[in-house]
Amino acid sequence: xxxxxxxxxxxxxxxxxxRIVDIKCGRSxxxxxxxxxxxxxxxxxxxxxxxxxxxxRASERPWQQLDDVFISSPAEAIVQALGGPDLQERAIAVAAxxxxxxxxxxxxxxxxxxxxxxxxxxxTYHTAAGAAGPEYxxxxxxxxxxxxxxxxxxxxxxxxxxxxxxxxxxxSIVVLDLHVQGRRGEVLTxxxxxxxxxxxxxxxxxxxxxxxxxxxxxDIVQITGSSMSNGTFDEIIHTAAGSFVxxxxxxxxxxxxxxxxxxxxxxxxxxxDAQFLHAYDHDDRAYEWWVEFDRRVxxxxxxxxxxxx
Length: 309
Known about the structure:
Blueprint: H1 2-11, E1 20-24, E2 29-34, E3 39-43, H2 67-72, H3 74-83, H4 87-101, H5 107-112, E4 115-120, H6 122-126, H7 132-144, E5 150-155, H8 161-165, E6 170-176, H9 182-199, E7 204-206, H10 211-215, E8 220-224, H11 227-230, H12 233-239, E9 244-248, H13 256-261, E10 266-269, H14 274-282, H15 284-293, E11 296-301, H16 303-308
Parallel strand pairs: 5-6, 5-8, 6-7, 8-9, 9-10
Antiparallel strand pairs: 1-2, 2-3, 4-11, 10-11
């Protein structure tokens, strides 16, 4: 499916204009910068423990060797990396797609396609009561499950989990994650325990069934954008067909129009810039801040377009 994003950008001749001038690796996200100031980023799983269920592997060569390939022939390098087994090359390819996608997040481009964008600072986004983002989620929940018994599937721990948990219209939330070992597993288990203690019943649970068995009973499915980096996105979006699909996270900053064409109904992401690049090189704390607390960008169908589709 992510190849559809590439094809769409290729048809728009997005690769014929700005040039890649910088590639950064070595942290949890890869980053790609263009000479017009556009920046893209993507989760780099080569810095994570081995993923037992992902048919990809960690990079076997220094990322610096990839510079010439991606800078001189970005389109060809992206195609090769997306079709290959290397986690780091794939992260760079997705980050490059994100960088070339930035013009298509402009309001004019989205409006012409029947899409609407709104932005929120992190504090507003994080406040479940009264914020525009959560209010929009509440309206979605009420639409897809008017009886107030919505079942939410969260693929990738984090994201909008806390926002859905704050909505009384949600009956249960099933979390699916490839990383439930070690410290991350402890954090996930503790978070679920706290949410259930506050709810007074087992409202949030860690999914034990297959992907298909879990998602086929969900009204809304939130997918982490990092699934594009680890090669699981295609299976997830296909399995979630029929549900309201939310694509969330920094890696989700890809051209919205083709993403909506393949079944995404809402994007919640962040658009990176030179401040992120500076923090990447010089400041560990600032880097983590820009990863976790950057401004949120929402993209959805305009109401009048959604009603006519």
